[in-house]
User: What shape does this take?
Amino acid sequence: HTWNNKVAHLRAIFNFGMEQKLLPHTENPFNNAVVKKEKKKKKILSESQINRINLLMGKFAEDERTQVTPKGGRCALYPTWYWSTVLATL
Assistant: This one.
């Protein structure tokens, strides 16, 4: 839960308490207690990065076709057809 979410719940509970005369307060202290949402920077790849990834995937696909085992053994980019499809959707 975020801070703003918790404050919204506290504000509602406090309002209920004031409406039901369970609290002596006339003003809700949570009315102005909000934090502005931070603008998140989009996670994007540059065209250069995408080109490098595609070249690397092409190399892995060729190694897979010729059944060359990569240094260090099989990696998480296999099967390359699957990951190439995933990358094409980005």
Notes: The two ends are 29 Å apart (CA to CA).
